[in-house]
Amino acid sequence: MLSLDKIYHAAFLLKEIARRTDLIEAPLLSLNGTRLFLKTENLQVTGSFKVRGAYYKISQLSAEERARGVIACSAGNHAQGVALAATRMGIRSVVCMPDGAPIMKVENTKALGAEVCLVPGTYDDAHDRAVELQAETGMTFIHPYDDELVIAGQGTIGLEILDQLPDLDAVIVPVGGGGLIAGIAFTIKSLRPDVKVYGVQAAGAPSMVRSFHDRCYETLDAVSTFADGIQVKTPGELTYQMCEKYVDEMVTVSEDEIAAAILALMENQKLVAEGAGAVPVAAALFGKLPIQGKKAVCVVSGGNIDVNILSRVITRGLIMSGRKSNLTIALEDKPGQLTRVSQIVADCGGNVVSVQYDGSDPDMPISSCFLKLGMETRDAAQIEQIRTELSKAGFQPVAERT
């Protein structure tokens, strides 16, 4: 059974490979009297907390097991942890990854010394293939979350948090299969049972949230989220049992909320987080948890976001936070109209960045047109102010921001 002794032992062994990541306060993200702190596992070796559990598990293998090699399945972060740990110990490693995994994670895994097997489908499909290969080859399977020693490795984060912020009130943890929150929750509750432990999943992949609330271990038919690190259909059986025992509450956040949290971390803290790493911050920013007036730690679990989707995530985050908006206005087609509209936007503090004129709509009078504006704005309140002032001036905003 998992014990504090194992977690302390893992912490001792991990000194040679894993960073003791910084815990930093984030005053610009702290709302409603909450003092928010960030446990920056996105700055960990390999860019994710996963190296902790992978290294500790592999370090405990027998000489015979090491000789046979190790095999794993991963959406990317566990893959890199297994590859680094195995290579450091001179052990052969094979990792099955879904073919939709970010290219950066695939290439980094190869660079760290693992053989990568891309599997069509989701993480769960990669898991099934890894199990097949393990049976064929006799290699040792390194589970990404449902393993006592892997959980012990992740639990070392809990030790660090308690040491870095002894008077904390709550810890907010991202959840996929549950290994990270199981380790942190066990550690925190064993040493400080008064501290709240909250889990957060993407709304499109709520396997552990449903299991937790229904008090019944469940598998989802399908999952969909750009937070690939927590895109899991089936949570761990052991991790589910530990969450049921040690976790206080679990919630979900939307794709837009995750995108807004990634943007907020970049702008305000100069930190790059992947989707999975940003979900605790999203839960805090959008009031999903009872942390008002408390000291709360968000575990930013990883920073390995695919640069190919980062621009889209930033755009979505700008829209979600009211920083970017589109507005369509129906007006009479005559000289000076654009000048008047632009002046109203400027007087409200907004900035027009694009203009599109459309006089072809058959439902509009021949003497009228649609004016489509792209704007940079401060927040949703400013967008509404612009709409109100345009209406007062006789213009007709006809579409909500998109």
Please characterize this protein's 3D structure.
The model has no long low-confidence stretch (mean pLDDT 92). This protein has helices at 4-14, 50-59, 63-68, 77-88, 103-111, 123-137, 148-164, 179-191, 207-214, 237-246, 255-269, 275-285, 307-320, 337-347, 380-392, and strands at residues 23-25, 35-40, 70-73, 93-98, 115-119, 140-141, 170-174, 196-202, 249-253, 295-300, 324-332, 351-358, 368-376, 396-399. The protein is elongated, with a radius of gyration of 24 Å. The strands form 3 sheets. It has a 6-stranded mixed β-sheet, sandwiched between helices. The chain starts with a helix and ends with a strand. Helix 11 (255-269) crosses helix 13 (307-320). It has 15 helices and 14 strands. It is of the alpha/beta class and 402 residues long. The longest helix has 17 residues, at 148-164.
Summarize the main sheet.
6 strands, mixed
Distance between the termini: 51 Å
Q: What structural class do helix, strand and pairing data support?
A: alpha/beta
User: Over all CA atoms, what is the radius of gyration?
Assistant: 24 Å
Beta-strand share of residues: 15-25%
Along the chain, the helix and strand elements come as HEEHHEHEHEHEHEHEHHEHHEHEHEEHE
Uncertain segments are none
Mean model confidence by pLDDT = 92
Number of helices: 15
Shape, principal axes of CA atoms:
elongated
Secondary-structure blueprint of this entry?
Elements: H1 4-14, E1 23-25, E2 35-40, H2 50-59, H3 63-68, E3 70-73, H4 77-88, E4 93-98, H5 103-111, E5 115-119, H6 123-137, E6 140-141, H7 148-164, E7 170-174, H8 179-191, E8 196-202, H9 207-214, H10 237-246, E9 249-253, H11 255-269, H12 275-285, E10 295-300, H13 307-320, E11 324-332, H14 337-347, E12 351-358, E13 368-376, H15 380-392, E14 396-399
Parallel strand pairs: 2-10, 3-4, 3-6, 4-5, 7-8, 7-10, 8-9
Antiparallel strand pairs: 1-2, 11-13, 11-14, 12-13
Helix pairs in contact: 1-7, 2-4, 2-7, 4-5, 7-8, 8-10, 11-12, 11-13
Organism: Candidatus Faecalibacterium faecipullorum
Cofactor: pyridoxal 5'-phosphate
EC number: 4.3.1.19
